[in-house]
Design a protein that fits this description.
alpha/beta; about 10% strand; Rossmann fold; globular; about 60% helix
Length: about 200
Amino acid sequence: MKVILFGPPGVGKGTQGLWLQERYGWPVLSTGDMLRGAVEEGTELGLRVKPLMDGGQLVSDEIVLGIIEERLGREDCRDGFVLDGFPRSVGQAEGLERILEAGGGSGGSDCLIVLEAGEEVLKGRIRFRSEETGGARSDDTDEVMRERLEVYARHTLPVLDFYEKRGTDIKRVECGGSVESIAEEICTWLDKKKGVG
């Protein structure tokens, strides 16, 4: 199954992705993690994207789609995968669906899981994550968080409309509860989609 975890920064996409990986064995693909890894390693790509990421801006569709296309071609993605925080723009969504449809199998994305939470909840989670990691992520500040939420509203929210128009199965999940209860709600829905239980 090809699953997209969708939602604003700090909503818990990475955490829920790990639950799905453990439950179903699907690899979790985070373009953010891939790009942060390139920055940490000081690669040519990392040097290109660091100023954008530090400012909470989006990396170009061309770069991100190239990373995704290469990763989806690996063997571990054959039976399914979870995309964490991608696509982040309608251009990326269109590119992703072209990649998936060209790759054979059953065509495009199977479902979109929309994680939702209020702005104060998101800011609280980002502050907590920053404290837990000792400020390891340069984008975990209030100022960058405000910019990331504005970018999300302008560029990423229209992705939801794109998938609604495609007729993609969409599950909305309110993320105010515990990590476990959110994961159980998502997995119950996915099990029904898969014909389990």
